[in-house]
Amino acid sequence: VLENDYESLRVLNVERNGNIIYTYKDDKGNVVFGLYDCQTRQNESKCLTLLVEIHPVNNVKVLKAVDSYIWVQFLYPHIESHPLPENHLLLISEEKYIEQFRIHVAQEDGNRVVIKNSGHLPRDRIAEDFVWAQWDMSEQRLYYIDLKKSRSILKCIQFYAHESYNLMFEVPLDISLSNSGFKLVNFGCDYQDRDKFSKHLTLCVFTNHTGSLCVCYSPKCASWEQITYSVFYIHKGHSKTFTTSLENVGSHVTKGITFLNLDYYVAVYLPGHFFHLLNVQHPDLICHNLFLTGNNEMIDMLPHCPLQSLSGSLVLDCCSGKLYRALLSQSSLLQLLQNTCLDCEKMAALHCALYCGQGAQLLEGQIIQWISENVSACHSFDLIQEFIIASSYWSVYSETSNMDKLLPHSSVLTWNTEIPGITLVTEDIALPLMKVLSFKGYWEKLNSNLEYVKYAKPHFHYNNSVVRREWHNLISEEKTGKRRSAAYVRNILDNAVKVISNLEARNLGPRLTPLLQEEDSHQRLLMGLMVSELKDHFLRHLQGVEKKKIEQMVLDYISKLLYLICHIVETNWRKHNLHSWVLHFNSRGSAAEFAVFHIMTRILEATNSLFLPLPPGFHTLHTILGVQCLPLHNLLHCIDSGVLLLTETAVIRLMKDLDNTEKNEKLKFSIIVRLPPLIGQKICRLWDHPMSSNIISRNHVMRLLQNYKKQPRNSMINKSSFSVEFLPLNYFIEILTDIESSNQALYPFEGHDNVDAEFVEEAALKHTAMLLGL
Hints:
Elements: E1 10-14, E2 20-25, E3 31-37, E4 42-43, E5 70-75, E6 86-93, E7 97-108, E8 112-115, E9 123-128, E10 130-136, E11 141-148, E12 151-159, E13 165-173, E14 183-185, E15 202-207, E16 213-218, E17 226-233, E18 238-245, E19 258-262, E20 265-270, E21 274-279, E22 290-293, H1 297-300, E23 307-309, E24 314-317, E25 323-325, H2 330-339, H3 343-357, H4 361-373, H5 383-396, H6 403-406, E26 423-428, E27 433-434, H7 442-455, H8 465-480, H9 486-506, H10 521-541, H11 547-575, H12 591-610, H13 618-629, H14 632-640, H15 648-657, H16 662-672, H17 677-684, H18 690-705, H19 727-746, H20 757-771
Parallel strand pairs: 10-14
Antiparallel strand pairs: 1-2, 2-3, 3-4, 5-6, 6-7, 7-8, 7-9, 10-11, 11-12, 12-13, 13-27, 15-16, 16-17, 17-18, 18-26, 19-20, 20-21, 21-22, 23-24, 24-25
Helix pairs in contact: 2-3, 3-4, 3-5, 4-11, 5-11, 8-10, 9-10, 9-11, 10-11, 11-12, 12-13, 13-15, 18-20, 19-20
């Protein structure tokens, strides 16, 4: 951002608007001050300057600083063209107190500005007896720690535009600062001997717009063979203490580690040794953090010098004086995802890359391409499942501040595998005692997070358990012919139509795969039920968000799930150059078709355990590929175990495309007997074959006789009316004829596709002749 043109150049501070105050000595030895605008990349030619005398001269004491160091920091809660009539100045003394001065200024003789009543400046004592303080320039907050009965108490003061301030909270921290000396953070960039104040202790507070509050702490190291550091996730109610052993201890080790604020992540960095990326929003599982050691590209990109973290992701290289903006690199994360052998690093790199991209189609395409080639690369978690859940989460994350509490960001609930090179201890911590009654902005979000920690047992994360139960009920009702009100089912199917429409709207190019082109009522029911349940879930927990916005968030989320599944199938379809004729049963499956069948099977496994919907047409395409690629016994095993779901569309195509060779007859019959009764009867009527006639006849007879009550019969059998003289069959057909006549009288408009007693007689004779080998 700012490079050292002069050897004496030093960055003094970074202001709230991002401008950089710096100083250097020119060729003549004059001290030059400058203000650099990072947006225009230009030096400002004019800025407001206030000179305040800090040493007593002629007994006029303005700001006293004789035997101690002092630091000063102007307050300006708002950046505006019309400055306040008075300036507010924080004075921090090495004597462990902080005061706020109110400096009234007046303009005289044109541009000349002087201090009014310079002999007596109004002041407020902000804090005293503190041992550590940090200034948050961008948010105008002062954090400090004082010691009460040897306990470290963290406090925060928020300064406002209307010249007031509030103590916002206080919280005890389980850290020892009694012998650590005096430490200031972000009160300008200090190039003096830091050992005078820090004694190798590192402590800083990081926040972000989601309401997170993290305290990062690294105690004085007794030995460089082992490093220990802690992160207090105040907004989550627990802390994590990490311990790692250093390799190559004999090499040069810098004095202390650096904590960097990267918004959703906090980075812990020891140059040349390790880089630890900690997930702030979801810190529960260690696999969502990225721990890198030794020679690594991401470590090599960082300066190998002590760093100072400033506001706005700015980082100061304390050796060279250069100022950097630290950003996570998508390309490096993708490269790590592709090259690492550890499941924990794959998990962390995947989540971090998706956070950086947040729905970017190019990034998703690159990840899908890699997953397609490495679908079995992870043993600790399902790669497809994790990608679908995480990417869908990030697609709607920014819609509301509470999304991290309502939707799962990961499919993994527990992680028991150790991370190589690091050990971890997790402890519950006390929650902050809030000192104000009403909250706005960041403080409202922090308070919401704290309330969630207190009262959200169990957690609010959505799951499809209710959808699973209701879906099975609807399918059972369909099989028995007893379904609840048509309006209820119609409303569910209307939800599915909205999802499909939303999905089609985000599809930017032509699709080669035949997805979303058939009805598939079961998947539409599942889709519609998920819309209904997720909408109710959001309405319960998102108070104050309008219903229309919630409905759109639900549609966007479910559409994203389906879009990602379509994208994976489409990517593999194009990769293997498959064409439309693949959908016909005219040849054995190729290696390319088997590859697509395999990836679709893995998609099915990933969605089944979470009970997620699939795009209509998925099961049909999957079954067609399965018939072409699998031997019959494997195919039937997949059908019986639920891996392949026989859809009406797939079976109709199979019956029409395949001729009646002995092999195909065996396949067709094996398929028909596994179909649900209603679909099976319909399919049998499409297959002109004695076997299908036999099945149709059996079903017809079963339907006629299910309520039949035997009655005395006096009529003699008229043999001339039967084509074959076989008394048992003749008697049976006569009974069926009488029942049909009775039914026709009672239900004259009921038809059965021309299936009658005569059809049954013919089918029975053909079947008998076949059994006798005639």
